[in-house]
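Before a colleague's protein record goes any further, I have to sign it off. Thanks in advance; the entry in question is below:
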Amino acid sequence: MDMNDLSQIEQAAGFGRSELFRLGMALLFIVGIMLYSSTYIHDVPGGVMLVVAAMIGGYMAVNIGANDVANNVGPAVGSHAITLTGAIIIAAIFEATGALVAGGEVVSTIKKGIIDPALINDKDTFIWVMMAALLAGAVWLNIATVMGAPVSTTHSIVGGVLGAGIAAGGIEIANWAKMGQIAASWIISPLLGGIIAALFLYLIKRTITYQKDMAAAATRMVPLLVALMVWAFGTYIILKGFKQIWDVDIVLALQIGGVLAVLTYFIMRPVVRRSAANLPNEKSSVNRLFIAPLICAAALLSFAHGANDVANAVGPLAAINEAVLHGAVATKASIPLWVMMVGAIGIALGLALYGPKLIRTVGSEITELDQSRAFCIAMAAAITVIIATQFGLPVSSTHIAVGAVFGVGFLREYLKTSHHQRLHEIKTHHQGAEEQVVENYLKRFEQASVFDKGTMLKQLKEKNGDKVLSKSERKKLKRIYRTELVKRAALLKIVAAWLITVPVSGLFAAIFYFTIRGMML
């Protein structure tokens, strides 16, 4: 056996040890839940079901941390604004803080009102439905994480509640109008996120990176962009992050966010001016100005996610707790501190143990990100949620973030292809000219601003009207110079996972419901 064989064996053993460590830590957490929750079931009929449900809730929380949190920090990691370890620490702290501070004291037990709880009058049946839904959502999230596909945890639990509800009460129990809205969000969420992210990236390119003096342009624009980010995130956190403990309408939220934005602008102007004064006139230098805003955005997104999505883990568990302790089939349930802790710790633990895989997927395996592109993705995440909240549109934070990544990537493809076409047109118009003349013109064209480039091309076409390319020739050029900066395999995998999330988790839930029912009867 040579040294290469020994090295491969050692690497395989190391991978196995790390997997066993992660599995062991997750199991230790779930066993801890079992031991702690068992202290609540003395002389309580059906208390064992509460312990089992608590363990499933912990399993769900771990999977939420493993899959869904990547959307908040993935772009920041992929753009190298922050290290993977730093992102995990920040996200774990702010996810747990958001869950505990702003997660609310009461949670909806029937997520999105997708089934009619009045058709489930039996307490035991209700408990079985909630357990099956929770387990189904967790299993599907686990599978999606292994596949490397970021999916919506809300849609996972919605599918679980729908499938288990239909299994228990028949097809008429479902609210198909609500399900239609959720299905529409599969298109609305990524489309809105992608468009907004692409618009912000184009704005940054036109106003900063396409300018002759990028440092001066950054001095003017970056304080405005950061202030706009504060406005968007201030409004977003007030509307979504604190909605469980502070009910504010969008007008007041926008006003508070606007005040914070104005203050931020006047604080950032001298800071950016000093930072940009010594920067080289190149794109990579300008990108560094977005690092601090990106880290703040990742923290705030994690806080809002913890405050909102902890309900996906503890909502059904809170419902089971209410049913077991008080014999009630409730659409709203209070959340005991220990139940909230299960969700908060589970999300943080899942992120630390299994989050890196999805963080890399979102941050670097779809398209290449730098700090300005990641900034656009964060802005799209906040603004899309604000717009959706105002119009009552059901959107998924996962779909928004991933759609924004694709939007940035596809805009880059379009701009890159268009640039190659322009260069080809310039060379076509200079046919017969000396090579040095062509090179000098191309050099002046590359250094020109966006406006000046348009003027140069217009003058060139007027001077050489007979060499203007036809429409069919332009199409051929587009095919020749088409540059793929978005990985199509990742696109197909993620979209496929989104489309099957609700039906697959629903199918799992129906199977689990009948299994639990058969075991208990």
Q: What stands out?
A: The first strand starts at residue 106 and ends at 108. DSSP finds 18 helices and two strands in the chain.
